[in-house]
Amino acid sequence: MTDKNQIIKEIRAGETSLGIEFGSTRIKAVLVGKEHAPIASGSYEWENQLVDGIWTYSLEDIWKGLQTSYQELAKDVKEQYGEILTKIGSMGFSAMMHGYMPFDEEDNLLVPFRTWRNNITEQATDVLTPLFGQQIPQRWSIAHLYQAILNGEEHVKDITFFTTLAGYIHWKLTGKKVLGVGDASGMFPIDSEIVDYNQKMVEQFDELKKEKGYPWKLREILPQVLSAGEDAGTLTEEGAKLLDVSGNLQPGSLVCPPEGDAGTGMAATNSVAVRTGNVSAGTSVFAMIVLEKPLSKVYGEIDMVTTPDGMPVAMVHSQNCTSDLNAWVNLFRENLESFGVKVDTNTLYGTLYNKALEGDADCGGLLPYCYFSGEHITHFEEGRPLFARTPDSKFTLANFMRSHLFTSVGALKLGMDILLKEEGVVVDKLLGHGGFFKTKGVGQKVMAAEVNAPVSVMETAGEGGAWGIALLAAYRKNKTEGESLASYLEEQVFAKEESVQIAPDPKDVEGFEAFMDRYKEGLEIERAAVVHLH
C-alpha cells in the first residue's frame, strides 16, 4: 500500500490520473496514484428529466455535475493530503453510452440531449437492422439520427457533428472531436479489423438518406474513432477553466479517448482479453463477453460492441434485475418493523439472500417475473411484476428468495444461452459486479449456475466506471511501446488483486435449467397480466 507521503509526492509532481464518469444517477470523479489505487474521489447526484416526451439531461446540469464532482474531489485531496490540486498527469471522461447530441456549425446543440433511455426509434431500427445485417438497438446514436430523418425533423440538415455525452465533454475540454472505439461502437457498427466504423455500412447509410439532399455525409459528422492508449489530445487552457472553476488546475494533462460505461466496466473488471467477460447486475443487468470470432448470425437479444481497444464484444442486456427483489425485501422489513424489530439493511439482505441457498434446486415450482419495466429480450413493451405458484408448489421462504434471485437474471439467461449453447462461445473467466453480488457468495453461486461456468468477484469491482476510465487514462500516460491494454491491466493493475471464484454446482445448474423451462412456459401468463392489468 502506498504511504501518504508518497501520494503527496505524486500529487505535487502531477503523476496522478483522473477519471470522471457520468452515470445515470451519479457523476463520479476518481483520482488514482502510480499504483492505480483510488486516492481521492468526488461525486454529484443527478436525475434525468422527461421533457416533451424525451428523457434528457440539460447542458446546465451536465456542466454543473462535472464541475461539482471535480470540486468535491479537489476538496478531498486538500482534506486528506493538505495539497491544492494543480497538476494531473492524465485524465479521461466516460458516460452512459449511446444517445444523441447533434451540433451545428456554430457548435450549438440542435435538440436536447436524447439519452439511451428513449425507446423512440423503432421505425429506424426496423430499417437499419436488416440493411446492415447487424442488430441496431433503439438506443444507438445512428438509430436516433435516422429516426430524426424519418420524422422529417428540421434540425437534421444543419448537423455538422454529432456525438455521445462522453464525446461532448472531451471535445469541450480538448478541442478534439474524437471517441474511444468502445463508445463509438454504440454510435455506429465497428469493423474490429481496422478499429473504425464499418465502411460498407457507412456507404449504405449515405445511400439510404441520399434522396433527402442533406449537405453532409455520415463520416463528416461522426467523431474520429480512437483505440485505448492513442493520442486524444490534451487539456486546453479553456478546458482547464471549464473543469476547475477555482482556476487552480493547469492545462496540458494528457487525455485518453473518451469511453462509454460498458468499456470502463470492462477495464474496471480486467475483462478486455479474449474469452473473458463481466456481468454487471443491479437495477438492470448486462453481460459482456469478448469474442474470439464473430457470431454466425444476427440475434435480436444480442448487441455487438467492442472493448476499449477494439475487440468484438457480445452484449446481452436485460432491462430488469433487482428492482422487484428489492421491493420484496422492503416488504419483509416492513413486516419486521410491525413487530418492533429493527434490522439494518446489510443484515436484512444478507439473511434473506443466504436463505435462498437452503431452497430446492429448482425453487420448488415457484414462478416470479421481475418485469418492473418492459423487457426487450422477451418482447414485453410494459412491465408487470408477477408471482405465481400452483397448489402443490413448495412455498417456503427459502424457495421464495431463491426464485426471485433466479428470475432476476432469467431474461439474461435467454441471451446467454444463445452465446454459450448455440454459438459455442467459450468463457474462461467471468467477473461479477453490482448489488446482486454484494452478499458474499450468493449472487455468485446463482450466476455460476446460470452460465454453468466459474464466476469471480474482486474487491475493487465496486469502484466502478470512474475508476475504469482513470485506468484508461493511466494506460494512455504509462504504457510502453507495444504494450496492449490487456497486458497493462493484467500485469500493472490487477497482478496483486485478490478475487474469490465460485464454480457451478451441478445440482444448481440442473435446477436453474428446470426453473427456466417453467419461466419460458409461463411467459403467456405474464403477457395476460400485462393485458388484463392495463
Fold and architecture overview:
The protein is an alpha/beta fold and 534 residues long. 39% of the residues lie in helices and 18% in strands. The protein contains 19 helices and 23 strands. The strands form 7 sheets. Strands 17-18-16-15-21-22-23 form a 7-stranded mixed β-sheet, sandwiched between helices. Strands 1, 2, 3, 6, 13 and 14 form a 6-stranded mixed β-sheet that branches. Strands 4-5 form a two-stranded antiparallel sheet.
Tally of strands: 23
In order across it, which strands form the biggest sheet? 17-18-16-15-21-22-23
Number of helices: 19
Low-confidence stretches: none
What labels describe this entry?
alpha/beta; 7-stranded mixed sheet; 6-stranded mixed sheet; 39% helix; 18% strand; globular
